[in-house]
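ARCHIVE RECORD
Type: protein–small molecule complex
Small molecule: flavin-adenine dinucleotide
Source of inputs: curated submission
Record status: active
Notes field left blank by submitter.
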Amino acid sequence: MSDNMISQVADPREERIRDVVIVGGGSAGWMAATMLATALSREIRIRLVESDAIGIVGVGEATIPPIKKFNRFCKVDEQAFLRETNGTFKLGIEFHNWGMPGDRYLHQFGFVGRELDAMVKLHNWWLTGRLAGQADYPAWEDVFIAKAAARANRFALPAHRQGDPLGRFTYAYHFDALLYGKHLRRLAEARGVERVEGTIVDVERADGHEGVTALLIEDGRRIEADLFIDCSGFRSLLMGEALNEPFDDWSHWLPADRAMVVPSAPAKDGITPYTKGIAHPVGWQWRIPLQNRIGNGHVFSSSFSSESEAEQRLMATLDTTPLDTPRLLKFRTGRRRRAWAGNVVALGLSSGFLEPLESTSIHLVQSGLERLIELFPTRRMDAVLRDRYNAQSEREWMQVRDFIIVHYKLTQRTDSEFWKYTAAMDIPDSLSAVLDLWKERAILGVDGGHLFQLGSWSSILIGQNFLPQGVHALADRAEPAAVAADIRRIVDEVNRAASQLPQHHEFIARYCAAPAS
Ligand SMILES: Cc1cc2nc3c(=O)[nH]c(=O)nc-3n(C[C@H](O)[C@H](O)[C@H](O)COP(=O)(O)OP(=O)(O)OC[C@H]3O[C@@H](n4cnc5c(N)ncnc54)[C@H](O)[C@@H]3O)c2cc1C
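STRUCTURE (tokenized, with ligand):
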């Protein structure tokens, strides 16, 4: 290194970020506040600006298993958090009517009950029996312990004993999004985050370079920072409105653009430890069980259905009495091209939206935060860090997008223009490649960093009747009747194991019952 270069290197302490401002106090904002306050030095000031007048989206009640990593890192106490958010446990998502009306399968979280072979994945063995047309053959979902527990409404925390089938599942949560934000707010404030109440009326741009210098609040306050985290929801106040970052629209692959939501009374016959995703002639409906109510929402496309038809479909198919009048939310599927531009990082709805079919939005906030902590910049906003952040974010969003599209693409329904459209639509090349490889030889062509791995993909592909033509060469040699006997033994084992678990509502009552409201 030349003397000249040495003299140009500033004291790294001088360049450290000193001030972070988070815009927005929805789930994304308070997750960011909690995680950054846990990860960053106490010398870094963290403020969160939110507007009580604007409020939050307030839906987003189902999660996926990696949220437990967020909880571990942020020291979120599982029992306390579930008690305070009317939380319940989630073993997967039960899809109804997606292949054909009347079809049902579970996208379960976890592993097959037992592998038969060190080399060949179990789905190949299962397919050997299935493709040979074995009589009374178990469904693919039946080899998963999570399915056996879910269908019997049973739940307990996974066992940690080696070889125990009760250790071969994992779980996520359902919770009240509003209460979740409040819970995280308490944690974040206890760790030094300052909350600023007020509506931002203007965003001051930096002169001569991309970025933001300050926020102007309606009462005249001016808030400066080195780094801004845009969690301002669909409005995308900084990334969208101020920086004008282009939005890549994916609605030709995911045409739903509305959700009609309504809570209903809790079920009398227990609490299902899974979300339901029920396909309708246009779009689908979620059913998310909390301790004190069921969250319901009908996701549909305004190109294929009016709002009043959607409302009728939603209200006609509730399991329990509605507790409110339905509320309509509008959205656009896609994402801001860059998640990090200048000194602004967008998280949550301000960075983009993928419909909640696989409950991935809160996870995308979490992974965006993990990435930000790993690549945390200096005030120079190092381009090399930013570019890596953006490349990784783009890849992750596209992978999740493809996983959601596959549910629509693989329908065999022809009962409405909506399903005819999704079955016939072009799909991204990245997804075609996955489907081609699966069709040929039951091989899953996604990389190890993909959020959804073989257990998840095989559930959807097989659950929607997209069976491969052939299996792995080693499994090909097997005698189908002998394989089928092994598969039946695994199914018996997981059923026996699951029957030892308590009912989900009993477990909740013991472990994390919310105070009676
Ligand atoms: C129909 C639907 C269903 C969903 N279901 C799920 C699900 O099951 N699972 C899942 O993981 N995710 C789900 N999501 C996504 C989830 O709700 C969001 O990703 C998550 O809640 C994060 O929202 P947010 O914090 O980005 O935005 P919001 O909750 O909208 O928060 C935005 C914040 O910005 C503030 N703000 C905005 N403008 C200003 C201003 N001018 N001045 C000051 N403050 C301002 C607001 O006051 C608010 O605090 C769903 C979303 C929708 C639309």
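CURATOR ANNOTATION: The chain has two domains: 17-109+170-400, 110-169+428-507.
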